[in-house]
């Protein structure tokens, strides 16, 4: 029973849909899955964002948990300062995540934004959470874009993980266009080549709008 941590090379790369796809693949294998979003921002105001955990549950039906929610759609530490509140140290989330293994075969943790976004008011990042999880988390899945610029962003993220002694478990392209151009086609081969990290899955653009039954039945085919 392991904990898979999912990060992105940036915000808006398809991280939440990738988490849902990982969960759906596990469900198809008959496994009990929990998805955790330690820190969610953007849930306040007149037009709040749909929480990532809500999206994952809509697509998969798996058990979802959200520990900290902040109003403004900003980096968590910025949102917390502006809201006049403090949020728990990143390492404390490990104490809430690890017991979930008792009742689930797979626990999937979604970060916020990119790898080094500060998730608490003490400067803790997702890398610090991976450290706190210890051997329970064998690696990190990196969700990346398909198009031009993704090689640089992905190599930087992979390099930051390796600098902390964490070997990425794999890459996921979060949104593959219906009509890919030259850059996307080349990146399909170049991403694993330049990073030395296997490409686990390629998610078609728009699959986050599928009904749950279609998402669950289709997801396993997106993995390599």
Automatic annotation (TrEMBL):
Q: What class of enzyme is it?
A: ligase
| Gene from which the chain derives | bioD
Q: Sorted alphabetically, which NCBIfam families does this protein's record hold? A: bioD
Q: Which residues bind substrate?
A: 41
The biological pathway it contributes to is: Cofactor biosynthesis; biotin biosynthesis; biotin from 7,8-diaminononanoate: step 1/2
Taxonomic superkingdom? Bacteria
Per UniProt, subunit arrangement is: Homodimer.
The record's catalysed reaction(s) read: (7R,8S)-7,8-diammoniononanoate + CO2 + ATP = (4R,5S)-dethiobiotin + ADP + phosphate + 3 H(+)
What does the UniProt function comment say about this protein? Catalyzes a mechanistically unusual reaction, the ATP-dependent insertion of CO2 between the N7 and N8 nitrogen atoms of 7,8-diaminopelargonic acid (DAPA, also called 7,8-diammoniononanoate) to form a ureido ring.
What Enzyme Commission number(s) does the record list for this chain? 6.3.3.3
At the highest ranks, the source species' classification is:
Bacteria, Bacillati, Actinomycetota, Actinomycetes, Propionibacteriales
Co-factor requirement = Mg(2+)
InterPro entries on file: DTB_synth_BioD, P-loop_NTPase
Binding-site residues, Mg(2+)? 16, 52, 110
Q: Name one GO biological process term.
A: biotin biosynthetic process
Catalytic residue positions: 37
Against HAMAP family, the record matches this protein to: BioD (MF_00336)
Binding of ATP occurs at 12-17, 52, 110-113, 174-175
Protein name per its UniProtKB record: ATP-dependent dethiobiotin synthetase BioD
Annotated GO CC locations: cytosol
The family line of this record is:
Belongs to the dethiobiotin synthetase family.
The UniProt GO MF terms for this protein read: ATP binding; dethiobiotin synthase activity; magnesium ion binding
Name the UniProt key words of this record, in alphabetical order: ATP-binding, Biotin biosynthesis, Cytoplasm, Ligase, Magnesium, Metal-binding, Nucleotide-binding
């Amino acid at each position: 029973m392991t904990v898979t941590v999912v990060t992105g090379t940036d915000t808006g790369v398809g991280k939440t849909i990738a988490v849902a796809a990982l969960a759906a693949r596990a469900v198809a294998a008959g496994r009990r899955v929990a998805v955790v979003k330690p820190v969610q921002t953007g849930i306040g105001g007149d037009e709040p964002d749909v929480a990532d955990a809500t999206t994952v549950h809509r697509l998969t039906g798996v058990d979802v948990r959200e520990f900290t929610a902040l109003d403004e759609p900003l980096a968590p530490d910025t949102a917390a300062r502006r809201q006049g509140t403090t949020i728990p140290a990143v390492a404390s989330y490990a104490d809430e995540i690890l017991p979930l293994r008792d009742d689930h075969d797979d626990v999937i943790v979604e970060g916020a934004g990119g790898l080094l976004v500060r998730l608490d008011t003490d400067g803790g990042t997702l890398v610090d959470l991976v450290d706190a999880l210890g051997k329970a988390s064998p690696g990190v899945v990196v969700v990346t874009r398909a198009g031009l610029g993704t090689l640089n962003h992905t190599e930087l993220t992979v390099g930051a993980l390796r600098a902390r002694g964490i070997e990425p478990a794999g890459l996921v392209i979060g949104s593959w266009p219906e009509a890919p151009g030259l850059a996307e086609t080349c990146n399909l081969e170049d991403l694993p080549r330049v990073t030395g990290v296997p490409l686990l899955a390629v998610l078609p653009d728009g699959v986050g709008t599928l009904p749950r039954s279609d998402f669950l039945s289709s997801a396993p085919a997106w993995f390599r």
